[in-house]
Amino acid sequence: KKLTLLREMLAGCGAGTCQVIVTTPMEMLKIQLQDAGRIAAQKKLMAAQAQLSPSSAAGAVEPAVETRTTATQITRELLRSKGIAGLYKGLGATLLRDVPFSIVYFPLFANLNKLGQKDPNIKAPFYVSFLSGCVAGSTAAVAVNPCDVIKTRLQSLQRGVNEDTYSGILDCTKKIWQKEGPMAFLKGAYCRALVIAPLFGIAQVVYFIGIAEFLLDMLPKHR
């Protein structure tokens, strides 16, 4: 029995919510590691400028010590200072991004894929599934990109010089709109679409070809 569009969207909503609960800590650590290099470079530049300034002649300026931040260090620090909740910083913004993404992606993919089915009982050709995954993934990625920008800003624990701090989703949205303009919410949309399109295209091809089922059938069956 064919699902209605509303039921397809609700199924996508449930899938997105489950995914967020599992992946938010990993997403959080990824952002911290990406930010670490930017912050370190900024500190190094500031130290170099301080050494060149006239006032530095009066007193020795200690050079910036470059330390390599690891995911394990960040995890330990977050657990020590904030507990499990520290790993879920920005959970609301992540839900705001990934749940709408799933609501858009899954129904759109399902309906695009059906266009390539000559018979409802026969799977669509693999290239139809691939193209459907690419189109649905890139469309959903661009649609929720403003939420991705907000999520990334909220999950950045370290701030560069003169960078804003945010108290929540609404405060972050307001400050970005006022200081950077509406186009700031589309930053990285093109790159996200380029990444998400092949990712979901390949995932859907692998799923619809039935590689997982084939591998499971090869396993010895226990009575």
TrEMBL record:
Spans of the Solcar repeats?
A: 3-115, 124-213
Q: How does it sit in the membrane?
A: Multi-pass membrane protein
User: Main location per UniProt?
Assistant: mitochondrion
Where in the sequence is the signal peptide annotated? Answer: none
Q: Name one GO cellular component term.
A: mitochondrial inner membrane
Residues spanning the membrane: 193-216
| Pfam families recorded | Mito_carr (PF00153)
Location within or outside the cell: Mitochondrion inner membrane
Q: Which InterPro entries match?
A: MCP_dom_sf, MCP_transmembrane, Mito_Solute_Carrier
Record PROSITE patterns:
SOLCAR
Q: Which keywords, in A-to-Z order, does the entry hold?
A: Membrane, Mitochondrion, Mitochondrion inner membrane, Transmembrane, Transmembrane helix, Transport
Q: Which GO terms describe its molecular function?
A: L-aspartate transmembrane transporter activity; L-glutamate transmembrane transporter activity
Q: Which PANTHER family match?
A: MITOCHONDRIAL 2-OXODICARBOXYLATE CARRIER 1-RELATED, MITOCHONDRIAL GLUTAMATE CARRIER 1
- State the family it belongs to: Belongs to the mitochondrial carrier (TC 2.A.29) family.
Q: What is this protein called?
A: Mitochondrial glutamate carrier 1
Give the originating organism. Answer: Pterocles gutturalis
